[in-house]
Structures are given as C-alpha cells and as structure tokens.
Amino acid sequence: MIKIYVTGVPVDDQEKALKFYTEVLGFIKKTEIPIGEHKWLTVVSPEEQNGVELLLEPVAFEPAKVYQKALKDAGIPGHSFMVDDLKKEYERLVALGVQFSMEPKEVGTNMIAVLDDTCGNNIQLIQML
Hints:
Structural class: alpha/beta
Radius of gyration: 15 Å
Mean pLDDT: 97
Helix content: 25-40%
Number of domains: 1
CATH architecture: Roll
Largest sheet: 4 strands, mixed
Number of strands: 8
CATH topology: 2,3-Dihydroxybiphenyl 1,2-Dioxygenase, domain 1
Low-confidence stretches: none
Strand content: 35-45%
Distance between the termini: 29 Å
C-alpha cells in the first residue's frame, strides 16, 4: 500500500509562509532542517500530527515561479484543504485579514471558498456537505 507522506506548496518566502500557515491557518510546524539557503520546512494539521506533512517549498526554480504565477493569475487554486464548517472558518479568517477571491459557495455536494495564502498561491477550502 502506498500512502501520501509529504506534499508541497510552493512559497515565495518560507518564513512568511510559516507564519501564515501556523498563526493564521492553524497548522503546527513539524520539521525544520536547514538545507543551504533554504529549509526542509513542514507543517501538519493539529488533528493529524502524524498525518500528511505540507512542505513549504521555496520557489527557487524559474519554471516553478512561472507555473505558480500562471495559476495565481488565472485564479486557480493549486491546493485544497478540508474544513468541517466552512462558513465558520471563513468568518474566522476574514476577521484575521485573509483575502478571499471566492466566498463560500455550494458546488454540487460540497461548499468551497478560495483564499490568498500571501505566498503566491490560491488555496481552496472545502467542506463536504
């Protein structure tokens, strides 16, 4: 059996990303290992601390920068995070100053919203209905 261990989100600044993903979104820092000018820097959900790690991956490769910018400019979320109560989470994040390009909206059997992670990405939040 194969399991997802780590998945990455490209970020333009690892320290800024760590602050946003922990202090705003509520993840917990799991691993921080210096590797040259960057770090192996991961966060996890407080509810699944031994679950999938999210690598805050520096965008140091020019084609990755172009791809990240193209997704952002097109309004396409590169990643999706699940929440139990999207309206409540939306209100909490708006109160913290998070910018949304899509407010909570029912789409089929789900409710989705899209936020700006301040590090170059659109992030979709999803609640299964």
